[in-house]
Amino acid sequence: MELPRTVPELPAAHGFRLRRWSWDDTELLREAATDPYIPLTTTVPSPCTPAAAAAYLQRQWRRTEIGTGYPFVIVDPAGRAVGDVGLWVGEVPLRGWATVGYWVAPTARRRGAATAALGAVTAWALGELALPGIELYVEPGNTGSIRTAERAAYRCTGLRPAHQVVDGRPRDMWRYVRTQQQ
């Protein structure tokens, strides 16, 4: 299956929408870089210098061009960039499944942005892209992300010991999945 090489604009619940990263999103990156957790589990640079922000944006654009993923900016109903949701498809040729991840800037949390974004990207991946399944991983103490996964109808399949390195240490992760059969 040949996947698209562009990031589409997607509508999401409650007036949120998803779009491609742009140069105008450096303020969102600067805010995310000050969060104590986001830079540990993502590629958001900290400190977020102008050069680091430019490199980050270019990496996001390149991921779609080379077919490894779709990084989206989450935009709130007022038009403000508030977070990121990424669909990573690099293993689709081998496994058929994609992985998804998300984060929301500290000033925009608890407003439904992550749940709306996760729902939209999941519907697109399982529908238009016809992927058989998507998985996501969450640290046991990350209750906000756990609630987001559950609200988006992801099902927990168990704990994966030492699954991901966070802050230089292997960490256990809950595995959540959504499939076309759900």
From TrEMBL:
<dbReference type="Pfam" id="PF13302">
    <property type="entry name" value="Acetyltransf_3"/>
</dbReference>
<dbReference type="InterPro" id="IPR016181">
    <property type="entry name" value="Acyl_CoA_acyltransferase"/>
</dbReference>
<dbReference type="InterPro" id="IPR000182">
    <property type="entry name" value="GNAT_dom"/>
</dbReference>
<keyword id="KW-0012">Acyltransferase</keyword>
<protein>
    <submittedName>
        <fullName>GNAT family N-acetyltransferase</fullName>
        <ecNumber>2.3.-.-</ecNumber>
    </submittedName>
</protein>
<dbReference type="GO" id="GO:0016746">
    <property type="term" value="F:acyltransferase activity"/>
</dbReference>
<feature type="domain" description="N-acetyltransferase">
    <location>
        <begin position="16"/>
        <end position="178"/>
    </location>
</feature>
<keyword id="KW-0808">Transferase</keyword>
<dbReference type="InterPro" id="IPR051908">
    <property type="entry name" value="Ribosomal_N-acetyltransferase"/>
</dbReference>
